[in-house]
Amino acid sequence: MKAITYTEFGGPEVLRLEEVDEPHAGPGQVRLKVVAAGVNPLDSKIRNGLRPQVTPPFPVTPGVEAAGVVDEVGEGVTGVAVGDEVLGWTVTGAYAEHALAVDFGPKPADLGWDLAAALPVAVETSVRVLDALGVGEGDTLLLHGAAGVTAAVGVQLAVTRGATVIGTASPGNHDYLRSLGAIPVAYGTGLADRVRAAAPRGIDAVYDAAGAGDLEMSIDLLGGTDRIVTIADHKATELGVTFSGPGAPFGSRLGEYARLAADGKLTVRIAQSFPLEDAAKAQELSASGHAGGKLLLRP
Length: 299
Description:
GO terms for molecular function: oxidoreductase activity. By secondary structure, the protein is of the alpha/beta class. The chain has 2 domains: 171 residues, Quinone Oxidoreductase, Chain A, domain 1 (Alpha-Beta Complex); 92 residues, NAD(P)-binding Rossmann-like Domain (Rossmann fold), CATH 3.40.50.720. Helix content is 30%, strand content 26%. It has 9 helices and 14 strands. The mean pLDDT is 96.
């Protein structure tokens, strides 16, 4: 099968389109014929050697999330059959024609493939953070970097929980945030004053998806660290703030969010879909921070 691989750390140029052996489903696994794979900033960090603790031995096939059709079912797997359409997390790398998965959920027939592949990481991350913060009816949530793919899902899910969301973003993204139900405020000098103006009764929780150095300001606004979670700022520990990383298997819950997306109640802004051979271009654009939405690969 065709797959993207690399055999050393480095820039996008280390990525190669190769013919490799197909994986086969072992106990507890299914094999997917990948239709669409998500490209995430983490993929580039792993490729650069910045996350060696999550890098498997070389050669590496990058990519975590995918949507595809089950074409093999391993021993002990129940509730899924060959021919089923699913979305979830791969264990052999998503930038490939076939990938193995153990954590996945059903894809509704009326959900497009690109949107399906864009959901797993964004949904799991934001549900994990909102649960940790206990965001619910009547809360006011300050969400830093609210126009990013994962954070924008967080905006929508927080709104459905009955929260008011104050979202920080560049002015060019303010209309987008309004369309998701957030109150936008601009980054930069004077941010704290703008947040106070947008939320005169104060804020109840902070979700930092930007990692832009706003934790100390957020602590001041909130009056403590108990309801602040970041997924992006590694100064969290020294400030007494929770840094949240990938959690427990989530696939059993993924179906309900896929259904929301199919019904038009949850969306991800799709920027571009690339053919598999253009994985290097996709990763370079992802790492730039200026993709303008989710990037995908089509094997």
